[in-house]
């Protein structure tokens, strides 16, 4: 009788929330979708640039609306396991073929880029 109770307890424990099989979850990879536009690339944009120059810097836009041909939308979405999705939207406005303004937010640069004058002292010390 005692063995039967212990066996029933073990079998029924598989249905509980303390199931050790639920402690291990499979790996879920990050899923990036859209245009990865960094702040460095947006900083290079200047009013008056042509559409081809903007496309060279930022890439081909994910969304081009037939009803709003004067704007390009760069959308980015990152889905990570166990975290809320991260959404970013950057909109570039044009007047004809010239860029007028940029609205929205871009992603931070993957690594900081030093200005050219920051490395000048290091180059001078190597020359001496």
Written description of the protein model:
The protein is of the alpha+beta class and 128 residues long. It is built from four helices and five strands. Strands 1, 2, 3, 4 and 5 form a five-stranded antiparallel beta sheet that branches. A hairpin with a 6-residue loop joins β3 (71-79) and β4. The model has no long low-confidence stretch (mean pLDDT 80).
The proportion of residues forming helix, as a percent range, comes to 25-40%
CATH class of the domain at 48-107: Alpha Beta
CATH fold descriptor of the domain at 48-107: Beta-lactamase Inhibitory Protein, Chain:B, domain 1
Structural class category = alpha+beta
Euclidean distance between termini CA atoms: 91 Å
How does the overall form come out from the CA principal axes? rod-shaped
Give a quick account of the main beta sheet: strands, pairing sense, barrel closure. 5 strands, antiparallel
Mean pLDDT value: 80
Strand content: 25-35%
- CA radius of gyration is 27 Å
- H/E topology pattern: HEHHEEEEH
CATH architecture of the domain at 48-107: 2-Layer Sandwich
Extended strand count: 5
Compute the number of helices: 4
Low-confidence residue ranges: none
Oligomer: single chain
Summarize the structure.
With 128 residues, the chain is an alpha+beta fold.
Which structural traits does this protein have?
single chain; 128 residues; alpha+beta; Beta-lactamase Inhibitory Protein, Chain:B, domain 1; 5-stranded antiparallel beta sheet; 25% strand
């Amino acid at each position: 009788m005692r063995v039967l109770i212990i066996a029933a307890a073990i079998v029924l424990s598989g249905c509980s929330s303390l199931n050790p099989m639920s402690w291990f979850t499979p790996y879920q990879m990050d899923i990036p979708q859209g245009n990865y536009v960094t702040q460095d690339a947006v900083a290079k944009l200047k009013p008056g640039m042509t559409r081809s120059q903007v496309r060279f810097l930022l890439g081909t836009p994910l969304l081009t609306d037939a009803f709003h041909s004067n704007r390009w939308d760069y959308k980015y979405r990152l889905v990570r396991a166990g975290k809320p999705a991260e959404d970013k939207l950057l909109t570039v406005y044009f007047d004809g073929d010239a860029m007028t303004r940029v609205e929205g937010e871009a992603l931070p640069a993957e690594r900081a880029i030093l200005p050219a004058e920051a490395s000048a002292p290091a180059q001078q010390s190597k020359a001496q």
